[in-house]
Amino acid sequence: PSESSTTKSHLIPRGVRKKATLGQRDDALLRMLCDDSKTNEVKELHFRKISHSMIDWKDAKHIRDINAWRNQIYGRAGLKAKEVVMWHEEEELWFELYFHLSIAKSRTHGILLPKAKAVLDAFNETFVGSVLKDKNGNELEARGERQPNAFTSKFNRICPHLRSRLQQCVFGKSGDTFVPKVTQAMLEKYQQMKAEMFAKGITSESVYSDNLQEWQNFFSHLPNHNAFEMPEVPKDSVNTKEDDAAATLISLAHQPVNIQES
After folding, report:
1. Beta carbons of 230 and 219 less than 8 angstroms apart
2. Integer distance in angstroms from the first to the last C-alpha of the chain?
3. At the top level of its lineage, which domain of life is listed (predicted)?
4. Residue 5 pLDDT greater than 60, yes or no
């Protein structure tokens, strides 16, 4: 490749990066102040593809041309626009299954929760290079690595109910750090299981342990590399009032329960 194609521009744009918006006139976007890293001078670049007096700020093509010009200058300076990759349904299911499998493991013996970096590595191992489909069945670009900041932000916000349950399960216990290994096949199985529950009209856990047997079956058949032995729930426990059905299963594994007379 030629030197010009591999060398960054010495003109570095100043200020906060902005883009043109359809229907909003902003003549300041037609010029860019840049610092010349070679001469330490300030230079002003101007948009020239369309005469400024002819620009229609309600014309989508004109807006695209202005943004393309600005992006080109940033790109030549090595300041590429950050690509925002929306979270896919399968990626969010991964978090659910991560918490479920961690809870299941904690019921067999004590575990320590991993650092976010270890969870990120496990997540990327599942998805990097995989080709997911959108809601219309169209293939998306192969998944790249999720970066630490964006991943940690998502991880800390998603599945608050399951996160709280897991923290209760590991509180005051010790053991080895555990990170579930989740595969695409496991995600497909988990998605199928959720669809079957939804078809039965069971979409959320009840504070009165409604549909306890259905939830017991759901949690005891979570797809997993290691077959966790899930404790059986006594038939007469269906009248036990706990935070929710799954919490009942967990509490039965660790402590006596009070049976309420119906």
Report:
1. yes
2. 80
3. Eukaryota
4. no
Q: What global pTM score does this model have? A: 0.59
**What ranges do the domains of the chain cover?**
3-76, 89-254
pLDDT of 25 higher than 80: yes
Structure tokens at 89: 């349904």
Query: Residue 39: what pLDDT?
Result: 86
Asked if 155 and 95 count as a contact pair (C-beta separation under 8 A), the reply is: yes
**Whole-angstrom distance, CA of residue 25 vs CA of residue 29:** 9
Q: Find out whether 85 and 21 touch, Cβ atoms under 8 Å.
A: no
